[in-house]
Amino acid sequence: MALAPESGLGKALSAPALQYVGKISYSLYLVHPFVLFPLQVIGLKLVAAGVDRWLLWAAFIALGLVLSMVASAISYELIEVRLRRLLDGAIRGMFFRPLKVGQSA
Predict the structure, then answer these.
(1) How far is CA 87 from CA 37, 79, 96, in A?
(2) Which pLDDT band, with edges at 50, 70 and 90, does 89 fall under?
């Protein structure tokens, strides 16, 4: 009942922004370590230089979230949408020949 379309949670999860995050979630899962690791390295160097840890922690969360979402959106668009469309067309052409007019399957 919590996810019924009329429930508060169901309405919140049907928001376009959350639907998009769900769509790119696998890309987010794959890409986020590559985004966060350089931020961690930079953060450690800044801590060693004397920058406040709490300020760096807040910046890490905000910047990491934004950069991970951007990288995930790019990855989703380039790999999951465009590359799949390209490969589907190429593979379909290799294994299935188009039907000629008047020819039945």
Answers:
(1) 31, 10, 14
(2) confident
